TrEMBL record, chains A, B:
It is found in: Cytoplasm. InterPro entries: HTH_MarR-typ, MarR/SlyA-like, Transc_reg_Sar_Rot_HTH, WH-like_DNA-bd_sf, WH_DNA-bd_sf. One of its GO terms (molecular function) is DNA-binding transcription factor activity. PANTHER family: ORGANIC HYDROPEROXIDE RESISTANCE TRANSCRIPTIONAL REGULATOR, TRANSCRIPTIONAL REGULATOR, MARR FAMILY. This is MarR family transcriptional regulator. Its main location: cytoplasm.
DNA sequence: TAAAATTAAATTGTGTACAACTTAATTATA
DNA sequence: TATAATTAAGTTGTACACAATTTAATTTTA
Protein backbone atom coordinates (compact mmCIF):
# COMPACT_ATOMS: atom_id res chain seq x y z
CA UNK A 1 0.00 0.00 0.00
CA UNK A 2 1.23 3.44 -0.96
CA UNK A 3 1.08 5.35 2.28
CA UNK A 4 1.61 8.70 0.57
CA UNK A 5 -1.29 8.33 -1.87
CA UNK A 6 -4.12 10.75 -1.30
CA UNK A 7 -6.63 7.89 -1.45
CA UNK A 8 -4.93 6.18 1.50
CA UNK A 9 -4.97 9.18 3.77
CA UNK A 10 -7.34 9.24 6.71
CA UNK A 11 -7.05 12.92 7.21
CA UNK A 12 -7.71 14.18 3.73
CA UNK A 13 -11.35 12.98 3.62
CA UNK A 14 -11.76 14.54 7.05
CA UNK A 15 -10.45 17.84 5.75
CA UNK A 16 -12.54 17.62 2.57
CA UNK A 17 -15.77 16.55 4.29
CA UNK A 18 -15.40 19.20 6.97
CA UNK A 19 -15.00 21.93 4.36
CA UNK A 20 -17.94 20.53 2.38
CA UNK A 21 -20.20 20.59 5.44
CA UNK A 22 -19.28 24.22 6.09
CA UNK A 23 -20.07 24.95 2.45
CA UNK A 24 -23.51 23.37 2.78
CA UNK A 25 -24.24 25.40 5.90
CA UNK A 26 -23.57 28.62 4.00
CA UNK A 27 -26.93 29.00 2.20
CA UNK A 28 -28.80 27.94 5.37
CA UNK A 29 -27.01 30.53 7.50
CA UNK A 30 -27.06 33.34 4.96
CA UNK A 31 -30.63 34.46 5.83
CA UNK A 32 -29.40 34.84 9.44
CA UNK A 33 -26.32 36.77 8.28
CA UNK A 34 -24.07 34.27 10.05
CA UNK A 35 -20.99 32.35 8.98
CA UNK A 36 -20.49 28.87 10.42
CA UNK A 37 -18.04 29.91 13.17
CA UNK A 38 -20.35 32.82 14.05
CA UNK A 39 -23.24 30.33 14.26
CA UNK A 40 -21.20 28.20 16.66
CA UNK A 41 -20.71 31.20 18.97
CA UNK A 42 -24.45 31.88 18.84
CA UNK A 43 -25.14 28.20 19.69
CA UNK A 44 -23.00 28.53 22.82
CA UNK A 45 -24.85 31.65 23.92
CA UNK A 46 -28.33 30.30 23.11
CA UNK A 47 -27.45 27.39 25.37
CA UNK A 48 -26.04 29.58 28.19
CA UNK A 49 -26.16 33.36 28.05
CA UNK A 50 -23.47 35.58 29.57
CA UNK A 51 -20.32 33.61 28.98
CA UNK A 52 -16.73 34.81 29.00
CA UNK A 53 -14.70 34.82 25.81
CA UNK A 54 -12.39 32.28 27.45
CA UNK A 55 -15.28 29.85 28.05
CA UNK A 56 -16.57 30.22 24.49
CA UNK A 57 -13.04 29.52 23.30
CA UNK A 58 -12.81 26.39 25.43
CA UNK A 59 -16.05 24.99 24.09
CA UNK A 60 -15.28 25.78 20.44
CA UNK A 61 -11.51 25.21 20.62
CA UNK A 62 -10.81 28.71 19.37
CA UNK A 63 -8.41 31.29 20.80
CA UNK A 64 -8.78 35.03 21.29
CA UNK A 65 -7.05 35.74 17.99
CA UNK A 66 -10.01 34.14 16.24
CA UNK A 67 -12.77 35.01 18.70
CA UNK A 68 -12.08 38.69 19.36
CA UNK A 69 -12.74 39.87 15.79
CA UNK A 70 -15.54 37.30 15.37
CA UNK A 71 -17.41 38.48 18.48
CA UNK A 72 -16.81 42.11 17.47
CA UNK A 73 -18.51 41.35 14.17
CA UNK A 74 -21.52 39.84 15.95
CA UNK A 75 -21.66 42.92 18.21
CA UNK A 76 -21.58 45.26 15.21
CA UNK A 77 -24.44 43.22 13.73
CA UNK A 78 -26.47 43.81 16.88
CA UNK A 79 -26.66 40.17 18.01
CA UNK A 80 -24.33 40.42 21.02
CA UNK A 81 -23.02 42.91 23.52
CA UNK A 82 -20.04 42.80 25.81
CA UNK A 83 -19.27 43.84 29.34
CA UNK A 84 -16.50 43.20 31.82
CA UNK A 85 -16.93 40.83 34.75
CA UNK A 86 -16.96 43.12 37.83
CA UNK A 87 -15.40 40.28 39.90
CA UNK A 88 -12.54 39.98 37.41
CA UNK A 89 -12.03 42.90 35.07
CA UNK A 90 -9.84 40.79 32.79
CA UNK A 91 -12.84 38.78 31.71
CA UNK A 92 -15.06 39.87 28.86
CA UNK A 93 -18.62 38.71 29.38
CA UNK A 94 -20.51 38.21 26.15
CA UNK A 95 -24.29 38.23 26.13
CA UNK A 96 -27.18 38.14 23.70
CA UNK A 97 -29.15 41.23 22.72
CA UNK A 98 -32.90 40.93 22.15
CA UNK A 99 -32.15 40.56 18.47
CA UNK A 100 -29.60 37.85 19.17
CA UNK A 101 -32.07 35.93 21.27
CA UNK A 102 -34.78 36.34 18.64
CA UNK A 103 -32.47 34.82 16.06
CA UNK A 104 -32.70 31.47 17.85
CA UNK A 105 -36.22 30.92 16.51
CA UNK A 106 -35.02 31.43 12.95
CA UNK A 107 -32.21 28.96 13.59
CA UNK A 108 -34.40 26.20 14.96
CA UNK A 109 -34.85 24.37 11.67
CA UNK A 110 -31.19 24.51 10.66
CA UNK A 111 -30.04 21.13 12.05
CA UNK A 112 -32.93 19.43 10.28
CA UNK A 113 -32.27 21.33 7.03
CA UNK A 114 -28.61 20.40 7.22
CA UNK A 115 -29.31 16.68 7.56
CA UNK A 116 -31.51 17.15 4.49
CA UNK A 117 -28.85 18.88 2.37
CA UNK A 118 -26.27 16.30 3.47
CA UNK A 119 -28.63 13.55 2.30
CA UNK A 120 -28.41 11.66 5.59
CA UNK A 121 -31.30 9.80 7.15
CA UNK A 122 -31.73 9.71 10.92
CA UNK A 123 -29.82 6.45 11.37
CA UNK A 124 -26.87 7.64 9.33
CA UNK A 125 -26.88 11.00 11.10
CA UNK A 126 -26.67 9.40 14.53
CA UNK A 127 -24.14 6.77 13.43
CA UNK A 128 -21.79 9.48 12.16
CA UNK A 129 -22.44 11.60 15.20
CA UNK A 130 -21.57 8.74 17.55
CA UNK A 131 -18.39 7.95 15.66
CA UNK A 132 -17.28 11.55 15.55
CA UNK A 133 -18.04 12.05 19.22
CA UNK A 134 -16.02 8.92 20.07
CA UNK A 135 -13.08 10.18 18.05
CA UNK A 136 -13.49 13.59 19.60
CA UNK A 137 -13.20 12.04 23.06
CA UNK A 138 -10.26 9.90 21.98
CA UNK A 139 -8.45 13.03 20.81
CA UNK A 140 -9.14 14.76 24.10
CA UNK A 141 -11.41 17.41 22.60
CA UNK A 142 -14.37 16.44 24.76
CA UNK A 143 -13.58 15.75 28.36
CA UNK A 144 -17.01 15.11 29.84
CA UNK A 145 -20.46 13.94 28.86
CA UNK A 146 -22.01 17.40 28.92
CA UNK A 147 -19.84 18.99 26.23
CA UNK B 1 -33.71 16.59 22.24
CA UNK B 2 -32.38 20.11 21.94
CA UNK B 3 -31.43 20.34 18.29
CA UNK B 4 -29.52 23.58 18.81
CA UNK B 5 -27.26 22.24 21.56
CA UNK B 6 -23.62 21.99 20.59
CA UNK B 7 -23.49 18.44 21.91
CA UNK B 8 -26.21 17.37 19.49
CA UNK B 9 -24.58 18.76 16.40
CA UNK B 10 -23.07 16.38 13.90
CA UNK B 11 -21.01 19.02 12.24
CA UNK B 12 -19.30 20.57 15.21
CA UNK B 13 -17.28 17.45 16.10
CA UNK B 14 -16.37 17.24 12.42
CA UNK B 15 -15.11 20.79 12.46
CA UNK B 16 -13.29 20.32 15.77
CA UNK B 17 -11.70 16.97 14.85
CA UNK B 18 -10.61 18.25 11.46
CA UNK B 19 -8.89 21.25 13.03
CA UNK B 20 -7.29 19.02 15.67
CA UNK B 21 -5.88 16.68 13.02
CA UNK B 22 -4.36 19.62 11.17
CA UNK B 23 -2.87 20.78 14.46
CA UNK B 24 -1.28 17.38 15.04
CA UNK B 25 0.20 17.38 11.55
CA UNK B 26 1.96 20.67 12.23
CA UNK B 27 4.97 19.38 14.21
CA UNK B 28 5.36 16.45 11.78
CA UNK B 29 5.37 18.74 8.76
CA UNK B 30 7.49 21.49 10.28
CA UNK B 31 10.83 19.75 9.51
CA UNK B 32 9.71 19.67 5.85
CA UNK B 33 8.72 23.35 6.00
CA UNK B 34 5.21 22.47 4.84
CA UNK B 35 1.76 23.39 6.09
CA UNK B 36 -0.99 20.79 5.77
CA UNK B 37 -2.53 22.24 2.55
CA UNK B 38 0.99 22.55 1.08
CA UNK B 39 1.60 18.88 2.00
CA UNK B 40 -1.60 17.93 0.16
CA UNK B 41 -0.34 19.65 -3.00
CA UNK B 42 2.98 17.79 -2.66
CA UNK B 43 1.07 14.48 -2.23
CA UNK B 44 -0.73 15.10 -5.53
CA UNK B 45 2.54 15.80 -7.33
CA UNK B 46 4.43 12.90 -5.74
CA UNK B 47 1.65 10.70 -7.06
CA UNK B 48 1.63 12.25 -10.57
CA UNK B 49 4.13 14.90 -11.60
CA UNK B 50 3.30 17.72 -14.05
CA UNK B 51 -0.29 18.50 -13.23
CA UNK B 52 -2.28 21.62 -14.04
CA UNK B 53 -3.45 23.90 -11.28
CA UNK B 54 -7.02 23.07 -12.30
CA UNK B 55 -6.41 19.34 -11.77
CA UNK B 56 -4.78 19.88 -8.38
CA UNK B 57 -7.78 21.98 -7.45
CA UNK B 58 -10.18 19.25 -8.50
CA UNK B 59 -8.44 16.61 -6.43
CA UNK B 60 -8.09 18.79 -3.33
CA UNK B 61 -11.36 20.71 -3.72
CA UNK B 62 -9.53 24.02 -3.73
CA UNK B 63 -9.91 26.93 -6.15
CA UNK B 64 -7.32 29.19 -7.74
CA UNK B 65 -7.79 31.82 -5.04
CA UNK B 66 -6.34 29.36 -2.56
CA UNK B 67 -3.97 27.47 -4.84
CA UNK B 68 -2.25 30.31 -6.70
CA UNK B 69 -0.57 31.81 -3.61
CA UNK B 70 -0.01 28.35 -2.10
CA UNK B 71 1.82 27.04 -5.18
CA UNK B 72 3.77 30.30 -5.43
CA UNK B 73 4.96 29.71 -1.87
CA UNK B 74 6.10 26.17 -2.76
CA UNK B 75 7.90 27.57 -5.82
CA UNK B 76 9.68 30.20 -3.73
CA UNK B 77 10.74 27.39 -1.37
CA UNK B 78 12.28 25.56 -4.31
CA UNK B 79 10.00 22.51 -4.21
CA UNK B 80 8.02 23.24 -7.38
CA UNK B 81 8.32 25.05 -10.66
CA UNK B 82 5.69 26.19 -13.13
CA UNK B 83 5.37 26.31 -16.87
CA UNK B 84 2.53 26.86 -19.33
CA UNK B 85 1.04 24.01 -21.30
CA UNK B 86 2.17 24.67 -24.90
CA UNK B 87 -1.04 23.01 -26.18
CA UNK B 88 -3.15 25.38 -24.06
CA UNK B 89 -1.44 28.50 -22.80
CA UNK B 90 -4.18 29.08 -20.26
CA UNK B 91 -3.04 26.09 -18.26
CA UNK B 92 -0.33 26.33 -15.65
CA UNK B 93 1.60 23.08 -15.38
CA UNK B 94 3.12 22.52 -11.97
CA UNK B 95 6.02 20.13 -11.53
CA UNK B 96 8.45 18.99 -8.87
CA UNK B 97 12.03 20.22 -8.70
CA UNK B 98 14.78 17.80 -7.63
CA UNK B 99 14.39 19.16 -4.12
CA UNK B 100 10.65 18.66 -4.24
CA UNK B 101 11.08 15.07 -5.34
CA UNK B 102 13.72 14.46 -2.68
CA UNK B 103 11.29 15.66 -0.03
CA UNK B 104 9.14 12.58 -0.65
CA UNK B 105 11.63 10.38 1.20
CA UNK B 106 11.45 12.60 4.24
CA UNK B 107 7.65 12.44 4.09
CA UNK B 108 7.44 8.67 3.92
CA UNK B 109 7.00 8.11 7.65
CA UNK B 110 4.41 10.86 8.13
CA UNK B 111 1.22 8.75 7.74
CA UNK B 112 2.57 6.28 10.29
CA UNK B 113 3.65 9.05 12.66
CA UNK B 114 0.24 10.65 12.36
CA UNK B 115 -1.63 7.46 13.28
CA UNK B 116 0.71 7.37 16.28
CA UNK B 117 0.02 10.95 17.44
CA UNK B 118 -3.70 10.41 16.90
CA UNK B 119 -3.51 7.33 19.14
CA UNK B 120 -5.26 5.09 16.61
CA UNK B 121 -4.40 1.45 16.04
CA UNK B 122 -4.56 -0.05 12.57
CA UNK B 123 -8.15 -1.29 12.95
CA UNK B 124 -9.42 2.06 14.16
CA UNK B 125 -7.48 3.88 11.45
CA UNK B 126 -9.06 1.80 8.68
CA UNK B 127 -12.52 1.88 10.25
CA UNK B 128 -12.48 5.68 10.35
CA UNK B 129 -10.99 5.84 6.88
CA UNK B 130 -13.72 3.63 5.46
CA UNK B 131 -16.44 5.65 7.11
CA UNK B 132 -15.02 8.94 5.99
CA UNK B 133 -14.52 7.72 2.45
CA UNK B 134 -18.14 6.49 2.37
CA UNK B 135 -19.37 9.86 3.55
CA UNK B 136 -17.07 11.55 1.08
CA UNK B 137 -18.66 9.55 -1.74
CA UNK B 138 -22.15 10.22 -0.38
CA UNK B 139 -21.43 13.96 -0.47
CA UNK B 140 -20.17 13.71 -4.04
CA UNK B 141 -16.58 14.64 -3.18
CA UNK B 142 -15.17 11.39 -4.54
CA UNK B 143 -16.61 10.29 -7.83
CA UNK B 144 -14.59 7.20 -8.60
CA UNK B 145 -12.52 4.50 -6.94
CA UNK B 146 -9.19 5.99 -7.93
CA UNK B 147 -9.55 9.34 -6.21
C1' DT C 1 -14.21 33.37 -39.79
C1' DA C 2 -15.62 37.12 -36.67
C1' DA C 3 -18.27 37.57 -32.45
C1' DA C 4 -19.96 35.23 -28.38
C1' DA C 5 -19.32 31.92 -24.89
C1' DT C 6 -16.38 29.27 -22.15
C1' DT C 7 -12.36 28.19 -19.61
C1' DA C 8 -7.94 28.62 -16.56
C1' DA C 9 -5.40 31.60 -13.62
C1' DA C 10 -4.86 35.49 -11.21
C1' DT C 11 -6.65 39.17 -8.30
C1' DT C 12 -9.43 41.40 -4.69
C1' DG C 13 -11.90 41.39 -0.52
C1' DT C 14 -13.82 39.17 3.64
C1' DG C 15 -13.46 35.91 7.20
C1' DT C 16 -11.46 32.45 9.72
C1' DA C 17 -7.27 29.90 12.29
C1' DC C 18 -3.42 30.16 15.00
C1' DA C 19 1.40 31.30 16.67
C1' DA C 20 3.70 34.82 19.06
C1' DC C 21 3.54 38.84 21.53
C1' DT C 22 1.60 42.82 24.41
C1' DT C 23 -1.18 44.78 28.04
C1' DA C 24 -3.75 44.90 32.09
C1' DA C 25 -5.73 42.51 35.97
C1' DT C 26 -5.37 39.02 39.36
C1' DT C 27 -3.12 35.56 42.16
C1' DA C 28 0.89 33.39 44.35
C1' DT C 29 4.88 33.71 46.88
C1' DA C 30 9.17 35.25 48.89
C1' DT D 1 3.01 43.26 51.22
C1' DA D 2 5.96 44.22 47.30
C1' DT D 3 7.41 41.27 43.49
C1' DA D 4 6.90 37.47 40.49
C1' DA D 5 3.98 34.49 38.04
C1' DT D 6 -0.24 33.69 35.87
C1' DT D 7 -4.26 34.72 33.33
C1' DA D 8 -7.69 36.94 29.84
C1' DA D 9 -8.10 39.79 25.92
C1' DG D 10 -6.31 42.06 22.41
C1' DT D 11 -2.84 42.71 18.58
C1' DT D 12 0.17 41.44 14.77
C1' DG D 13 1.58 38.59 11.13
C1' DT D 14 1.12 34.50 8.18
C1' DA D 15 -1.64 31.26 5.78
C1' DC D 16 -5.63 29.31 4.23
C1' DA D 17 -10.66 29.32 2.07
C1' DC D 18 -13.78 31.01 -0.96
C1' DA D 19 -16.97 34.38 -3.42
C1' DA D 20 -16.72 37.55 -7.04
C1' DT D 21 -14.34 39.72 -10.59
C1' DT D 22 -10.71 40.34 -14.22
C1' DT D 23 -7.68 38.89 -17.95
C1' DA D 24 -6.13 36.13 -21.51
C1' DA D 25 -6.53 31.96 -24.24
C1' DT D 26 -9.45 28.74 -26.46
C1' DT D 27 -13.69 26.90 -28.29
C1' DT D 28 -18.49 27.52 -30.14
C1' DT D 29 -21.55 29.17 -33.09
C1' DA D 30 -23.91 32.40 -35.92
Amino acid sequence: MEALHLSNQLCFPFYAVSKEITKRYRPLLEPLHLTYPQYLVMLVLWETDQVSLKTIGKRLHLDSGTLTPLVNKLISQGYLEKARNPQDERQLVVQLTGEGRALQKQAESIPEQLAEVLGLNENEYFAYQRMLTDLSIKLGLTDDATC
